[in-house]
Amino acid sequence: MNFLATVGRVFLSFLAHVGRLSAFTGTALLHMVRPPFYPRLIGRSMVEIGYYSLPVVGLTAVFTGMVLALQSYSGFSRFAAEGAVATVVVLSVTRELAPVLAGLMVAGRIGASMAAEIGTMRVTEQIDALTTLSTNPFKYLVAPRLLAGVVMVPFLVLVADIIGVFGGYIVGVYKLGFNPTTYLSRTWEYLEPLDVISGLTKAAVFGFLISLMGCYNGYYSRGGAQGVGAATTNSVVSAAIMILVFNYVITALYFGK
Amino acid sequence: MSDQPKIQLTDVHKSFGPKVVLDGVDLSVAKGESVVVIGGSGTGKSVMLKSILGILRPEKGSIRVDGQEVIGMRSRDRDALMLKFGMLFQGSALFDSLKVWENVAFGLIQGRGMDRAQARDIAIETLASVGLAASAGDLSPAELSGGMQKRVALARAIATSPEIIFFDEPTTGLDPIMADVINDLIVKCVKDLGATTLSITHDMASARKIADRIAMLYKGKLIWVGPAKDIDHSGNEFVDQFIHGRAEGPIKMELRA
Prior knowledge:
The complex is a heterodimer of chains A (about 260) and B (about 260). With about 260 residues, chain A is mainly α. Chain A is built from 9 helices and no strands. Chain B has one domain: 3-Layer(aba) Sandwich (Rossmann fold), CATH 3.40.50. Chains A and B meet through helix 5 of A and helix 2, strand 6 and helix 3 of B.
C-alpha cells in the first residue's frame, strides 16, 4: 500500500507541475503580445543574453569545429573519404552542434542567472511589490526575457555557425594540409539553406525554453537561499533536458522523412 | 456613499493544504481610518493583507475595496485597482537592480506612465519628506542601512499618493529609536495624504502610535476589535496576554508546526 501511495503521490505532483508550467507558459505568451511593453527591459535582456554570451559561445564553437575536422579526418581516412571533412564540419555544426552546444552553454549562463534573480525577487517579496505598484510581474519580468531568448539565441547560433566552420577551416588548412580554396568550396558545395534554417529554428525554441525554465523556476521558488539554489539548479537541468528532447523532435520534423 | 467602508472583509477563509490560516475573518475599515491588526507570528496577518491585494486567493468569503469585489478579479482590473494602493513590505522589498530614486518613482513611471524627469522630481521630494537627501537617490538600495531602506520603502509606498496604504510590520528589525522615527513618519504621511491605512504588527509601541482602532488576530479569527485607547482594558485575556508579552496565559505557543 505504501508503495502505491508513493507512486500516486509522485504522479500527482508531476501532473500538478505540468499543469502549473502550462498555465505559466500560457500567461507568459499572452503578456508577450499584449501591451504595455518594456523596451528598456527587453534591450537589457537582449544584451545580457546575446552580447555577454558571445565569448563562451564563440569558444565552444571554435573548438567544436576544430575537433570535428580532426576527428572526421582521422575517421574518414579509414575509407579514403578525407575529402568530405569540410562538408561534415559545416553540416554537423549548422544542423546540430552549434544550436545544441550554444543552447546548453546559454542554459548554464542565462537560465541560472534568471532563476537566481527572479527567485531572489520572489523570496524578498519584490515580486509582490511589483504587483502593488500596478505592474504585472509577467509583463515586467517574464515577457522581456522570453522575447530576448527567442531573438538572441538564434543570433548566437548564427555566430557559432560561422566561428565553428572557421575552426574547422583552421585545422583543415593549417594542420591537415587542405588547400584553402578547395576547403571553402567544399564547405559551400553541399550546404543547403535548410541546414542553417533548421539550426536557427532549434535555436529560437531553445532560447524560449531556457528563458521559460529560468523564469518559471525562479517565479515559484520559495524558502530563502536554499529555495533559490534549488530553483537555479532545476532551471539549468530542466532546460538542458528539454533542449535535448526538443532537438530530437525538431530534427525529426525537418529531416525525419 | 460616504458611510461605505473603504475595505470590507466578510467571512474570509484561506488555507494552505490542511493548514487553516484565515478562518472567517470579518473586518471593515472606514475611509481615512487607521486600523492595526496585531497578533503573533504565523497567525495569518500577512496572508490577510496579501488576500486583499489579490496576491493570494481566499477560498471563501468576500473582500470589497470601495464596494468592488476583489476576489477573482481579472488581472487587468487588478492592475487598475492597485493604483489606489501603496504597500510597505516587511523586508522593504526594494528593487535592487534599480537606484533608490527609481524605486521611489516606480509606481509613477510604470504604473501611471509619467515621464522619467517629472517622476524623478517627485521621487526626490518624497525622499525629502521621509528625511533622505536628494543625493541618496542615486545610490543603490544595497548601499543603505536597514533603517534607510525602510524609509525608501515608505517613500515608494506613498509616492503615488495612494488612497489606501498597507504597512506590513513597519518597525520589525529596527532599533527602538529608528522604529519610533518610522512610526512618526507613518503618522505624518498618513495625515498629509488623508489615506486609509491597514497595518499589521506585533510591536505594541508601534500599534499604539499609529492606530485609530486595533484588531487582534488569533487562530484565523479576529478575536477583539476596538478603539486603540481601549486596548489596555479590553477585558479580553488573549489581548491582555499579548500586549503584556506574557508567556503564560490562554495563548499557547505551538512549538511544533
